[in-house]
Write a structure and sequence with these properties.
five-stranded antiparallel sheet, alpha+beta, 5 strands, 157 residues
Length: 157
């Protein structure tokens, strides 16, 4: 039986019952509005990275690895005490959207609503997850080596 639109879960329904766990590491992805390749433009990319790395966003949680792709962002985040994942994502998106709109005032939407997250299990390797994140530009064919891509970082680099 094919599901009807009414029977499909709403993204908010999928998050119901989930809770953020301080100290847990999450692999997070969020996309641009309409999957527009906004971040092929260097000035928008630089403004976004500056906003993403703003120390005020990372006073509790730690950004372990990240990459800004033309139409999405991946991050490996260790959630800090007294912070929830939805609050952190809201702050990241709001901060970056403000900076991007300061550079490109006519831009209507920067980020698509929502995000995807996956909590890493304790036995999973953080290094493997970080490699997955930062190797995105290589897998996408944007560069041959990670070091040739400008918009990434990791605490191990």
């Amino acid at each position: 039986m094919r599901p009807t639109p009414r029977s499909l879960p709403h993204s908010g329904d999928l998050r119901r019952g989930r809770r953020s766990e301080p100290g847990r590491v999450y692999l997070i992805t969020f996309t641009t509005h309409g999957r527009q390749p906004l971040f092929v433009e260097e000035t928008l990319s630089a403004a976004t990275v500056e906003a993403l790395l703003d120390r005020r966003l990372w006073m509790r949680s730690r950004l372990l690895a990240w990459v800004l792709m033309p139409d999405h962002w991946h991050g490996l985040v260790e959630l800090g005490p007294w912070e929830t994942l939805p609050d952190l994502m809201r702050q990241l998106k709001a901060n970056t959207s403000r900076r991007v709109r300061a550079v490109e005032p006519g831009l209507s939407g920067v980020w698509a609503p929502g995000y995807h997250d996956r909590a890493l299990r304790h036995q999973e390797s953080l290094i493997d997850a970080a490699r997955y994140v930062v190797l995105n530009p290589v897998r996408a064919g944007l560069v041959r080596r990670v070091r040739d891509y400008r918009y990434w970082g990791a605490v191990w680099a």
